[in-house]
Amino acid sequence: MKKNFLIFYYALCCTLLFSASSFAQQKDSITIRQIYDEALLRGQAYTQLEYLCKKVGARLSGSPQAAAAVEFTRYIMDTMKLDKVYLQPVMVPHWVRGAKEVGKIVNSKQIGEQEVRVVALGNSVGTGKGGITAKVVEVKNFEELKALGKAKVSGKIVFFNRSMDATKFNTFEAYGAASDQRGAGPSEAAKLGAVGVVVRSLASNIDDFPHTGSTRYQFVRQIPAVAISTKGAELLSGLLKNDTTLLFHFETHCQMLPDVLSYNVIGEIKGSEKPEEIIVVGGHLDSWDLAEGAHDDGTGCMQAIEVLRIFKTLNIKPKRTIRAVMFMNEENGLRGGLEYAKVALEQKEKHIAAIESDRGGFTPREFSTEAPAEILQKMQTWLPLLEPYGITAIKKGGGGADISPLRNQNTVLIGYVPDSQRYFDLHHTEQDTFDKVNPRELALGAGAMAALVYLISEHGF
Amino acid sequence: MKKNFLIFYYALCCTLLFSASSFAQQKDSITIRQIYDEALLRGQAYTQLEYLCKKVGARLSGSPQAAAAVEFTRYIMDTMKLDKVYLQPVMVPHWVRGAKEVGKIVNSKQIGEQEVRVVALGNSVGTGKGGITAKVVEVKNFEELKALGKAKVSGKIVFFNRSMDATKFNTFEAYGAASDQRGAGPSEAAKLGAVGVVVRSLASNIDDFPHTGSTRYQFVRQIPAVAISTKGAELLSGLLKNDTTLLFHFETHCQMLPDVLSYNVIGEIKGSEKPEEIIVVGGHLDSWDLAEGAHDDGTGCMQAIEVLRIFKTLNIKPKRTIRAVMFMNEENGLRGGLEYAKVALEQKEKHIAAIESDRGGFTPREFSTEAPAEILQKMQTWLPLLEPYGITAIKKGGGGADISPLRNQNTVLIGYVPDSQRYFDLHHTEQDTFDKVNPRELALGAGAMAALVYLISEHGF
Questions:
Q1: Chain B residue with Cα closest to A386
Q2: Which residues contact A322 (CB under 8 A, 6 or more apart)?
Q3: pLDDT reading at A130 higher than 70
């Protein structure tokens, strides 16, 4: 009898436990459905992005437009009845492009003179008036460059012409594998006495829009550097095959001015049960100066704000504190991300998670996280709740540049991973404009981020 | 000893079997990698699609452009050294739009007269010169229409204004749930004495491009019918709320001409081991007349041809026969699909599988199939081979319209399922143009189809 009772008791407990867990899952499922309905039916991110792109426009760190973007996003969040909206001061680099660049094949045996499209690399020094004109050595990587040695490189323009690997499904992998040319190419070339650098645009496609992006000078002479459009790169490379006397000319007027005061823009909903545990959701507010920074990273910022709006509108009281952060200066300094983490440490804040959207506002696919195995496994138990909305995996992988300085504060870093096929057609070019953003794709991203924030806030790690 | 020997023998067999299966998997994996490399690095689908869109253009069944599309695709396949390229005759409907449509709010109390964008529904009768002008009753569905009854509908224009449900992740589900208005709306309205029908465009977005598409008249008076842009629908619906005397006017000049001879275009690689077992891969060659039929369904056709090209270029000898079929007349009759299945039956051909790509040339997500459970399970064992390229599921679901007549011939029907978020912004509008297609997304789709064809050809079901 006693045994029977125990079995009955055990069965009852199991049933109750199962019911409780199934009830929790059902509640989560219903809330997440509401989150997506709000994003898809009454989403604000698209309209707000239009304003950011069309009225504010390109907003490189230190520019008046970056300041306007700070005011615009603070204004939106001020109207949302959040618990706190504030600006976090940060000094940022102030690089300016100056007059439009000129790029030219000077004396091709085959086609004579021919203009090609180039843009100065971010943070690079200008050639000044008159520009530079020199012979060209083409290399695919630093090994080839070093093999040429000083004798063959000195006095020349080095042309880094390694393509992004089109066979990689994940275009960010291809980008990562090619980006050393832009980041370190100018300094590597300078070490061997080069007078300038032309880098093939980091692009998935062949077109005539050069892609800018940061270069990082090392302790070596700073030489001028431009990105050439992929079409230009193909042309130049083809001509060089039979023409060692070909001269290339480029002229840039960029310069680095003194640092400028700018801000991270932060909005917060206080947690109802564990307010000291903070979940950050963010993107970066600055953009390159060539277009509107629509996918890079207007979409991420507007999605982060949308997460807070959805919580407020649906009157979801998060157990933990949620912060939307528009980081300043991801593109050419990461000063906003660094400052945010520094202040967090000083204030002894406890950031349990940070989610960044900085891979474009495209259709959802995954979340990637640097979390240790047991936390990753816990997050993966939530996957069935997100799969109906196109999130098919939560995987080991990177978080994002702006949140990376939180890595040493026990923060679970998470990246929102939309489909990557179209991103590097637009990235850092004059093509990164509002019309390239699809409102459903944008809204689904906001929904995914809000749903994950909700789950972390409800259940912790 | 004997027992030990048996254990040893068993272990050996397992090892060999495992090695054999692992070897086969490895071979598949390598071949699939080669397939994708070919599609991504040297793909032809994008260039050929450009020709189809820009030089051939809109190709409604019976039009000269449809005939040109037949010649163009036959020509491409003729140059590919296939085992067989042929045209399969089929009589198709020949509906013509005639002079551009006019749509107009005639006498709104609020805004007076206002033109709105409308297009005649495919297969609909025209109003002729002078058009029709009548009061409007707005309904969301057939129940509301029937509730109004003859008294309130007779002599009026019925305005079907049910939106696609934006909360559905899969936009095809939302489309399916709203498309009865276009397909059966005109006949349902005619039964109650309506003089014309205005249907809200089946669209994901709000813009000013009306979406055409077929209507199917039942045995009832055929009344003229147009689709109104979603922007126009919103305007009209808003005005009707306080304005029961509002008159709407539209004029269409479409008509159905006698049937015309056209063709399915077919290319074939003969199987090396089981040539009698046929795998079809296809799309439909006809398009609506408003644009270039880029995503609907130029992409599907070019992907199907690309599958054959990849097999030829890589010199993969398929065990089973592979046929690329460009079906004619999916849009307003399905005659090509019906004829293909009829001939297959007459010739006692054995179609083991048919894969259709007719959901746009967007980034890959899934395959869906009507296959019975055991075949579905077998296909799902292949999923790890496709996941690295963005195919995250093989699921129960529809195949495609053109291949559906093969359903009763024991054919496994499979649909290629790319991401659906952007499709219904473009579908059946003047916006369905070449520039909306991304070359990587197109190539990944061709790769996915070629990989699946390869696996079916190697392993059967």
A1: B169
A2: A268, A269, A271, A278, A279, A281, A307, A308, A311, A453, A457
A3: yes
pLDDT value for B25: 85
Domains and CATH numbers, chain A: 31-95+259-459 (3.40.630.10), 98-253 (3.50.30.30)
User: Count of CB contacts below 8 A, A vs B?
Assistant: 59
CB B270 within 8 A of CB B83: yes
Which residue of A166, A365, A421 is in closest CB contact with B441?
Answer: A421
- Residue B281: how many other CB atoms lie within 10 Å: 29
Question: Which residues does chain A have within 8 Å of residue B205's beta carbon, measured at their own beta carbons?
Answer: 439-440
Tell me the chain B residues in contact with residue A169 when contact means C-beta distances shorter than 8 Å: 388-390, 444
Q: A36: nearest CA in chain B?
A: B167
Per-residue model confidence (pLDDT) at position A218: 96
Encode pLDDT of A370-399 as tens digits.
Answer: 999 999 999 999 999 999 999 999 999 999
Q: Which residues contact B94 (CB under 8 A, 6 or more apart)?
A: B61, B62, B63, B256, B257, B258, B259, B260
Strand partners, A102: A251
pLDDT tens digit sequence for A327-343: 999 999 999 999 999 99
Nearest to A440 among B390, B421, B441 (CB): B421
Measured between alpha carbons, how far is B342 from B318 in angstroms, rounded to an integer? Answer: 25
Query: Before B259, cis peptide (omega within 30)?
Result: no
In one-letter notation, the amino acid at residue A158 is V
Task: Place A24 in a pLDDT band, splitting at 50, 70 and 90.
Answer: confident
Q: Which residues contact B170 (CB under 8 A, 6 or more apart)?
A: B420
| Sole residue written with tokens 């001269």 | A247
Cα separation, B227 vs B229, whole angstroms? 7
pLDDT of B29 reads: 97
Give the integer Cα–Cα distance in Å for B128 and A168: 55
DSSP state of B122: B
Cβ-count burial of B202 within 10 angstroms (0-12 exposed, 13-18 middle, 19+ buried)? Answer: buried
User: Distance of alpha carbon B149 from its chain centroid, rounded?
Assistant: 35
Which pTM does this prediction carry?
Answer: 0.95
| Amino acid of residue B293 | G
A36 interaction partners in chain B (CB closer than 8 Å): 167
Asked if A167 lies within 8 A of B422 by C-beta distance, the reply is no
How far is it, in rounded angstroms, from Cα A376 to Cα A386? 15
Instruction: Please enumerate residues of A whose Cβ is less than 8 A from a Cβ of B.
Output: 36-37, 40-41, 166-167, 169, 171, 204-205, 363, 365, 388-390, 392-393, 419, 421-422, 425, 438-441, 444
- Among A41, A365, A393, the residue with its CB nearest the CB of B166 is A41
- Report helix angle B439-459 to B2-42, nearest 10: 150
- Long-range pairs for A128-132: beta carbons < 8 A, 24 or more residues apart: A128/A251, A128/A253, A129/A251, A129/A253, A130/A251, A131/A102, A131/A249, A131/A250, A131/A251, A131/A252, A132/A157, A132/A195, A132/A196, A132/A224, A132/A249, A132/A250, A132/A251
To which residue do tokens 């991110």 refer? A45
Reported as a pLDDT band with limits 50, 70 and 90, residue B15 is low
